[in-house]
Amino acid sequence: LDCENGGNTMSDRLIASIHDCITTLARDNECRAIVISSLGKDFCSGVNLDDLGQFNTDLASVEDISRRGRVIEDRITHIQRAFTAIEMCPKPVIAIIHGACAGPGMGLATACDMRYCSTDTWFQVKEVEIGMAADVGTLQRLPKIIGSQSLVRELCFTGRKLESEEAFKSGLVNRVFGTKEEMLKFAFETATKIASLSPVAVQNTKKSIIYSFDRPAQEGLDHIREINLLALQSEDFISAATAAATKGEVAEFSKL
């Protein structure tokens, strides 16, 4: 993320870029893992106020209430689509977060598969402070990430900041790092490890996790069984199993 402002506020241009980038990488057979980071002092400090002001001006020019509703719906859907593309991307997506992660930044972060942050990071479901409910994924995804529903409600009802250590203890992030450089190094090592494994296995694993999350265990078992009817016949499985059995060279896997 790299906006002209140091806070990396979520602008219309940035949202479109996120969607285009993720959908492109999802189709790129050379890509096996994705790391999302940001330049500047913050990961994402909130919504871009210039874009919001222009949107309100444009909205005021629409007289009919139903048509204004359609304009609002289109804008919300535009942002939701970008973050859902991250969640549904077949490749694992890692977020490395520093500074502020607020408002739509929370929507972006919670759509990722893994999250790491630095000690200076704070998280905030900021929308309630500006008179609205978060509508780009935080309310849907955060309760699935943090184990305590009581904590989720406290954060979403009050808009209070969640500091890095509490974020780690709650399960929102996997690890906390002293510096952004340490975090970058670890994230890329993790991405490299993922990329060294079978893309068939990794992508089927993500697909099964997403499918099974809100379904009974048996439905998830049926789903992964159907997937593995083909996957267990792939050259990836044969190569990896042979390497493990013979303790020979590490298996290498071709792109999908």
UniProtKB/TrEMBL annotation:
Q: What family is this?
A: Belongs to the enoyl-CoA hydratase/isomerase family.
Could you give a single Gene Ontology term from the biological process aspect?
Answer: fatty acid beta-oxidation
Q: Give the source's domain of life in one word.
A: Eukaryota
Keyword vocabulary terms for this entry: Fatty acid metabolism, Isomerase, Lipid metabolism
Question: According to its record, what are the GO cellular component terms?
Answer: mitochondrion
Q: Which InterPro entries match?
A: ClpP/crotonase-like_dom_sf, Ech1-like, Enoyl-CoA_hydra/iso, Enoyl-CoA_hydra_C
- Tell me the pathway: Lipid metabolism; fatty acid beta-oxidation
What protein does this entry describe? Putative enoyl-coa isomerase
Q: What Pfam families does this protein's entry cite? A: ECH_1
Q: Which Gene3D superfamilies match?
A: 2-enoyl-CoA Hydratase, Chain A, domain 1, Lyase 2-enoyl-coa Hydratase, Chain A, domain 2
**GO molecular-function annotation terms?**
delta(3,5)-delta(2,4)-dienoyl-CoA isomerase activity
